[in-house]
C-alpha cells in the first residue's frame, strides 16, 4: 500500500467503527474542559471523570475557583496524581482568566499556552473540542499508533503531530484524533495487545512492529 492508501484505509476504518465519537472527558463548557484536560496529564480519563464532579460541585468557574486555596484544590484532586503542580496550575490560570480574559477561556493557542500548567497538547484539545478549531493533540495512543501504522517515525510527539497534520485532511483532524484515541484503547493498546483484533495495524502496520509482535508471541 502507498502512504496515501494507508491514510485512506485508516480514515475509512475509523469512520466505520466510530461514526459517533464521544469526547472522553466530561465537561460542560470551555473552562471545565480546560481543567479536566489539565488534570488528565499522566492520569486516566476514567479517574479524572470521577474527581472533576467533586471539584466542579464547589467551583465550576474561575471566580469560585480562586475562592479556594491551592491546598483546598489539591485535597480534592489528589487521586489524579501530580496534585501539587496541577492545583497550583488550576488556581493560577483561574486568576489569570479573571484578570486578563474577563473570566473566559481564550480562543487562541498562544493565550492558552501562556497559562500556568497548560502545554501545547492541552491547548490543542481545548481549541479543537471546545472551539472547533482544527488541531491534532497527540497523546500516548496516537503517538504509538502513528508509529505502528508506519505513518510517523515515533521520534517524539512533536514529530508525530507534524506527520499527522501533513497526512490527514485538516477538516478531519478534530474527529480523527479522538477516533484514533478510542481505537488505541480498544484495539491497539500498549499492553495486552491482540493483533488479530487490530485490523488497521494488521493491514498497514510497520513490518518491524508486526515481526516483533509474532516473535514475542512465540517466546
UniProtKB/TrEMBL annotation:
Reaction equation(s) it catalyzes: 2'-deoxyribonucleotide-(2'-deoxyribose 5'-phosphate)-2'-deoxyribonucleotide-DNA = a 3'-end 2'-deoxyribonucleotide-(2,3-dehydro-2,3-deoxyribose 5'-phosphate)-DNA + a 5'-end 5'-phospho-2'-deoxyribonucleoside-DNA + H(+)
The organism of origin for this protein: Hyunsoonleella jejuensis
Keyword annotations: 4Fe-4S, DNA damage, DNA repair, DNA-binding, Endonuclease, Glycosidase, Hydrolase, Iron, Iron-sulfur, Lyase, Metal-binding, Nuclease
Protein name from the UniProt record: Endonuclease III
Co-factor binding details: Binds 1 [4Fe-4S] cluster.
HhH-GPD domain span: 39-186
Gene3D superfamilies: Helix-hairpin-Helix base-excision DNA repair enzymes (C-terminal), Hypothetical protein, domain 2
Role: DNA repair enzyme that has both DNA N-glycosylase activity and AP-lyase activity. The DNA N-glycosylase activity releases various damaged pyrimidines from DNA by cleaving the N-glycosidic bond, leaving an AP (apurinic/apyrimidinic) site. The AP-lyase activity cleaves the phosphodiester bond 3' to the AP site by a beta-elimination, leaving a 3'-terminal unsaturated sugar and a product with a terminal 5'-phosphate.
Names of required cofactors: [4Fe-4S] cluster
Signal peptide per UniProt: none
UniProt EC number: 4.2.99.18
One MF annotation (Gene Ontology) recorded for this entry: 4 iron, 4 sulfur cluster binding
Any GO BP annotation: base-excision repair, AP site formation
Family statement: Belongs to the Nth/MutY family.
Amino acid at each position: 500500500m502507498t502512504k496515501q492508501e494507508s491514510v485512506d484505509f485508516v480514515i475509512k476504518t475509523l469512520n466505520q467503527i466510530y461514526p459517533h465519537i464521544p469526547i472522553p472527558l466530561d465537561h460542560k463548557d470551555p473552562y471545565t474542559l480546560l481543567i479536566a484536560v489539565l488534570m488528565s496529564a499522566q492520569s486516566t480519563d476514567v479517574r479524572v471523570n470521577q474527581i472533576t464532579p467533586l471539584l466542579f460541585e464547589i467551583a465550576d468557574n474561575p471566580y469560585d475557583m480562586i475562592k479556594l486555596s491551592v491546598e483546598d484544590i489539591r485535597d480534592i484532586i489528589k487521586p489524579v496524581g501530580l496534585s501539587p503542580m496541577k492545583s497550583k496550575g488550576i488556581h493560577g490560570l483561574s486568576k489569570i482568566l479573571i484578570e486578563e480574559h474577563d473570566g473566559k477561556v481564550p480562543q487562541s493557542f498562544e493565550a492558552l499556552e501562556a497559562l500556568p500548567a497548560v502545554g501545547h497538547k492541552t491547548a490543542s484539545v481545548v481549541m479543537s473540542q471546545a472551539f472547533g478549531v482544527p488541531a491534532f493533540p497527540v497523546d500516548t495512543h496516537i503517538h504509538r499508533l502513528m508509529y505502528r501504522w508506519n505513518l510517523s517515525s515515533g521520534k517524539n510527539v512533536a514529530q508525530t503531530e507534524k506527520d499527522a497534520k501533513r497526512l490527514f485532511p485538516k477538516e478531519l483532524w478534530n474527529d480523527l484524533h479522538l477516533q484514533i484515541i478510542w481505537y488505541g484503547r480498544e484495539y491497539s493498546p500498549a499492553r495486552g495487545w491482540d493483533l488479530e483484533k487490530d485490523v488497521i495495524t494488521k493491514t498497514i502496520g510497520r513490518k518491524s512492529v508486526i515481526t516483533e509482535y509474532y516473535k514475542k508471541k512465540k517466546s
